[in-house]
Specification:
single chain, mainly alpha, 77% helix, elongated, binds fe (ii) ion, Hemerythrin-like, Hemerythrin
């Protein structure tokens, strides 16, 4: 049989930091498109006055936050943020990024209890806060790690599906 030797699950590995950085950016882009689309769908349902659809769209967005957004943040806080946090140059940036994670997770908690216009506003706030946060990762923090010979982006994200996809 042709697939006898295929591994059951191949974890993603990267030959260098450049390749890892582009995989992270691509994954961030997919996450942003999905999260923004879910937030927009919630706004549209609330604007249309469709309470049933609004309930469903809020559940979809909360579910995505629980399954994708929060595990992504938690995974970053391991070796990825950890190694940069120990450098003098990026220490404060990482502290700031951790505050972003706390804030975004707090917004998700608020969204869980919210309805109607408030839920729509919180959904938009989550999508926009995530967009700002990932620009700081893509444009400041991760390029810093990739450019620092003492740190390894490729090692920090290898096999972490929540950071680089499958
Ligand atoms: Fe993050
Ligand atoms: Fe991220």
């Amino acid at each position: 049989m042709a697939h006898d030797n295929a591994p059951a699950h191949q974890h993603r590995a990267f030959s260098d930091d450049r390749e890892a950085l582009s995989a992270i950016e691509e994954h961030h882009g997919q996450m942003l498109r999905r999260g923004s689309a879910l937030a927009d769908a919630l706004v549209a349902a609330v604007a249309a006055g469709d309470a049933g659809a609004a309930y469903d769209e809020k559940a979809n967005l909360v579910g995505w936050c629980e399954d994708e957004l929060i595990p992504h943040a938690v995974a970053e806080e391991g070796p990825l943020y950890g190694q940069a946090r120990q450098t003098a140059e990026a220490h404060l940036l990482v502290e700031g990024m951790l505050l972003d994670h706390q804030t975004i997770i707090g917004l998700v908690e608020e969204l869980r209890e919210a309805e109607g216009a408030r839920a729509a506003a919180l959904g938009t706030a989550i999508a926009r806060a995530f967009a700002l946060h990932l620009r700081k990762e893509n444009e400041l923090l991760f390029p810093f790690i990739a450019a620092n010979p003492a740190l390894s982006l490729a090692e920090a994200v290898a096999g972490l599906e929540a950071l680089v996809g499958e």
